[in-house]
Specification:
- The protein is mainly alpha-helical.
- The protein has a single domain, classed as Farnesyl Diphosphate Synthase (Orthogonal Bundle).
- The chain contains 18 helices and two strands.
- It has a two-stranded antiparallel ribbon with strand order 1-2.
- Helix 3 packs across helix 8.
- The radius of gyration is 21 Å and the shape is globular.
């Protein structure tokens, strides 16, 4: 297959996504000012959240899905494609703002979460009612606004004839899957379901589908990809997406907060039933190690877990071999994904970029 050289759009994709998002959010803010200037505070919070960090992973996968389907970055529709894929960052914003609220997270990317920011503003102004309730209400609305504007942005993109119709399936499915995955996550925490099957199902739909699989599917659909390429993308996306989340689970317990932007141990404090936790509990039960089981179960959902307590549960997770189990699963999923991609006619430089993205997503420190 002939290899094509990367273009300026390829090389600086995150910056171009940022530019498009900034322009779109500024335009929509002007509209909101016509309703009432007070509403602009919520829009500013959304804009600050969207433009204040993030890896732009979802638009990146969508772009290279389009390029691998033969998309031309120098063609007349490239800017329209850029607008369409940038809208994925608003889906991400909706998911994260709501997720932070559901998990009662106090920080995101090293800054106060939206519900915390508005609760503090309420308290500082001496308004009536509980500040936390106000913060929660605003976070729900900001997340909803992100979802609505994502849809508006995607459908306003100037794409080739028939592209919106082809992309309707992944766009529709992605939004349902991420909400279904969120529900499964909430239910698992409430019910105490710590099975490996449930943990992987949550990873599959809460993260993998809207992080890798559907963005790739979206880009390929816009580009009118061959069905074989679509099938390869779906397999690659599901596997790399789960591997990405498994790496995130490890970083959530063992990562450096200065790098990840979230306090270490947050997943444990929030009671997340991850594969790491499921593997640890299963192995502790197989060994008849009641002390290890108790250590893991006690840490789950403990809001005060920190310092020596966090170090203790980290040691238990490592000693039980749970970390090794997760690392092995990441390696197996990555290998399976690359095999699927390698077997089909994905155009260059899309193929090479997707191989590189697989490594970045699964062997990262952020």
């Amino acid at each position: 297959m002939t290899e094509a050289a990367p273009t300026p759009l390829d090389d600086a994709l995150p910056q171009h996504v940022e530019r498009v998002l900034a322009g779109y959010l500024d335009q929509r803010r002007t509209e909101v000012l016509g309703v009432d200037p007070a509403v602009a505070q919520a829009v500013d919070a959304l804009a600050g959240f969207v433009l204040g960090g993030g890896k732009r992973l979802r638009p990146t996968f969508a772009w290279w899905g389009w390029r691998g389907a033969g998309g031309d970055p120098s063609g007349e529709h490239a800017q329209g494609v850029l607008t369409a894929i940038a809208s994925l960052e608003l889906i991400q914003a909706c998911a994260l703002v709501h997720d932070d609220l559901m998990d009662a997270s106090s920080t995101r990317r090293g800054r106060p979460t939206v519900h915390v920011e508005f609760a503090r503003a309420h308290a500082a102004r001496g308004w009536s009612g509980p500040p936390a309730r106000f913060g929660a209400a605003v976070a729900i609305l900001v997340g909803d606004l992100a979802q609505v504007w994502a849809d508006d942005m995607f459908h306003s993109a100037l794409l080739p004839e028939g592209a919106h119709a082809r992309a309707a399936e992944p766009w529709r499915a992605m939004r349902t899957e991420v909400l279904a995955g969120q529900y499964l996550d909430v239910q698992a925490q409430a019910s105490g379901d710590a099975s490996e099957g449930t943990a992987l199902r949550i990873d599959r739909f809460k993260t993998a589908a809207y992080t890798v699989e559907r963005p790739l599917h979206l880009g390929a659909a816009i580009g009118g990809a061959d069905p074989r390429v679509l099938s390869a993308y779906r397999r690659y996306g599901a596997d790399i997406g789960v591997a990405f989340q498994l790496r995130d689970d490890l970083l959530g317990v063992f990562g450096d907060p200065q790098v990840t932007g979230k306090p270490a141990g947050d997943d444990l404090r929030e009671g997340k039933r991850t594969l790491l936790v499921a593997a640890a509990l299963q192995r502790a039960e197989q060994r008849g190690d009641r002390a290890a089981q108790d250590a893991v179960r006690t840490a789950l959902g403990d809001p005060d877990l920190d310092g020596a307590g966090l170090d203790r549960v980290r040691s238990v997770l490592s000693d039980l071999g749970a970390v090794q189990v997760v690392e092995q699963r990441i390696a197996a999923l990555t290998g399976s994904a690359l095999d699927a991609l390698d077997a089909e006619p994905v155009a260059e430089p899309g193929r090479s970029a997707l191989f590189e993205l697989a490594e970045r997503a699964t062997r990262r420190a952020w």
